[in-house]
Amino acid sequence: MTSFLTLNFNVGVLGHVDSGKTSLARALSSTASTAAFDKNPQSKERGITLDLGFSAFTVPLPEHLREACGERYDHLQFTLVDCPGHASLIRTIIGGAQIIDLMLLVVDIVKGMQTQTAECLLIGQLTCSHMVIILNKTDLLPDDKKQSAIDKMTKRMHKTLENTRFKGCPVIAVAAKPGGPEAPDTEEAQGIIELMQLLKAQAFLPHRDPSGCLLMAVDHCFSIRGQGTVITGTILQGALHVNDTLEIPALKVHTHIAHLVILKRIPSAMQGDRVGVCVTQFDPKLLERGLVCTPGSLSTLHAGIITVQKIEYYRGALCSRAKFHITIGHETVMARVSFFSRTSLSSQSEVPSSGSPSAEEATPDPFSFDWEFHYQEEYLTGKGETEGQEQEQWALLEFERPVTCPPLCLVIGSRLDSDIHSNTCRLAFHGKLLEGFEDKNYTETSLPRLKISKDKHKEGAVERVTDDYTVIGRNLFKKETNLQLFVGLKVTLSSGETGVIEGGFGQSGKIKIRVPEGLKEETKQLLSSSSKKKGKGGAKNEPSKEDDAKADSQPIAIHLNFKRYVYDPQKKMVQS
Which BP terms from GO are recorded (predicted)? Predict the structure, then answer.
């Protein structure tokens, strides 16, 4: 006898606070989890969603999926991930968005797009490829103006999405809770049947691969008397089975799977499934949200290197050494950010091209410790050397506390300390994790491998000539400078000669410069003329003030150019 399975399809419900997301999830759902519909006492007290809520409804497998699935599945379960809408909970929203296949963006039809609606839209663009817009609270519109208001808002939404990956996505109008959240349940929700039909039509066979190491995003942990501790969450990759051993990397704890539940006890679960994992000998108070994995498969990082791209709606500058809230994996932590790019001599042609993958298949930009990089005081927003292409840029993130995350995971940088009431985007940049540093002494063990340089320029003037091959320079260094560090570096004179710093001259920071090819005749004449004028005494032969000014206004300048590697412990100066 064939045992049919239920295909799980994760749908995120996102939108501005009070747009009716929880009411919509309740209207759609037939099964609620222990974390559904604002069961948190604080949520009930404040009347808003404070955490991720999970519920589900199941339908017969649609015909278009039956062809794609063969005979593996006979039902389709929509798991609804109800994300909070309040601005202060954006890190929870980002965590919820990373486990979904399709996003429902809920818009209050009376208020239209609001600040957090826009932020949710941006998060959706970074985390999923399919979206449906829900125009909620149509019951608040006058009957005689309802359809025209719906048409107008639908047109506005399509215009908003014109330049996004969701261009042309479906828009549907509903009234999830006529009369508002406090109204009695006697009035039936409007448009829910049509929404269910639309979701069935929009459902697709998501990528599900049971191979590889397990990674599961945990959103709830509680105990059941007589059975042990239950960890609930969504499997992001791999699979798990009864009797497997799990690691909770943030706690450095291993535990054993006693049984698995998806509505009923099952022997195994795989990528995309929402599952309850009953484990032995584990205190539920130790874990509220985080990751569990195959033992040894995740790294705990003190710093990392990411590809970086500014979010176009962020108005602030992205400055190196500034601190941002970094959401990485399923954690949010403060980190200091330093931006850098490849030097112009470090040719892009060194990287073999592998075609142009789709958005879902795209791999992060390549990176190598062998490349030369240039330190940037801030993120560059102009185009790169290749016409019409954004310049490739990276960032070093130095975390205030260690974070546990999978390789190549999504990274989002935000300024969550910005005023939540201002009409500004707080999401600043995004990227993918390329390299991670597990050693807490990474500044000594790993960063010296990172060849990021800063260009330096010093300028002084030739004071006098000592012979045809030597000049004395001034104003290039302070008297307390250790001049030995600069011995052997090349300098250029504004008169065209190239020289080498031989050492200090006296105690005031002056230097002796050797010119191997010798000084030009005109240079010697200019310098000797200036010296004679300054050296002569007596009223008869004393140079006029005009002559002095002329000599001082046209000194021969000394230019010293070099670069210094930011993370070189020796702080050596290098010239190309």
Answer: selenocysteine incorporation
pLDDT tens string 222-232: 998 888 899 99
Does residue 353 carry a pLDDT above 80?
Answer: no
* Cβ neighbours, 10 Å, residue 262: 17
Measured distance CA(561)–CA(576) in Å, rounded:
9
In the chain, list all ranges with CATH 2.40.30.10: 215-297, 316-344+369-380+391-450
Is this structure's pTM higher than 0.90? no
Taking the C-alpha atoms of residue 73 and residue 9, their distance in angstroms, rounded to an integer, is 12
Averaged over 434-456, what is the pLDDT? Answer: 96
Select 454-529+554-575's CATH number: 1.10.150.170, 2.60.40.10, 3.40.50.720, 2.40.10.190.
2.40.10.190
Tell me the C-alpha distance between 175 and 135, whole Å.
8
- CATH code linked to domain 316-344+369-380+391-450: 2.40.30.10
Q: How far is residue 337's CA from residue 320's CA, in Å, rounded to a whole number?
A: 6
Do the beta carbons of residue 49 and residue 23 sit within 8 Å? no
Q: Which two tokens stand for residue 237?
A: 């990759």
Tokens for 297? 């498969």
- The confidence score (pLDDT) of residue 143 equals 93
> What DSSP designation does 422 have?
S
CB atoms within 10 A of CB 374: 18
Fold category of 215-297 in CATH: Elongation Factor Tu (Ef-tu); domain 3 (2.40.30)
Q: Kindly report, residue by residue over 260-299, the tens digit of the pLDDT.
A: 987 678 888 988 888 999 998 899 999 888 889 999 999 9
H helix or E strand, kind and range, residue 222? strand 215-224
pLDDT at 531: 59
For residue 286, give the DSSP letter.
G
- For the chain, the first-to-last Cα distance in angstroms comes to 74
Domain with CATH 2.40.10.190 in the chain: 454-529+554-575
Backbone angles phi, psi at 556, to 5 degrees: -85, 115
Are 21 and 14 within 8 A, CB to CB?
Answer: yes
Tokens of 279: 């484990």
Surface-to-core class of residue 573, CB atoms within 10 Å of its CB (0-12 exposed, 13-18 middle, 19+ buried): middle
Residue 387 has pLDDT above 90, yes or no: no
Distances (CA, A) of 427 to 90, 167, 413, 418: 10, 21, 6, 10
Q: Please report, for residues 115, 312, 393, 415, the alpha-carbon distance to residue 317 in angstroms, rounded to integers and kept in the order given.
A: 20, 11, 15, 11
Cα-Cα-Cα-Cα dihedral sign, residues 361, 367, 368, 372? positive
Highest-confidence segment of 17-31, 44-58, 86-100, 526-540: 17-31
172-181 pLDDT, tens digit per residue, is 999 999 987 7
Pick the CATH number of 6-202 from 3.30.1380.10, 3.40.1350.10, 3.40.50.10860, 3.40.50.300: 3.40.50.300
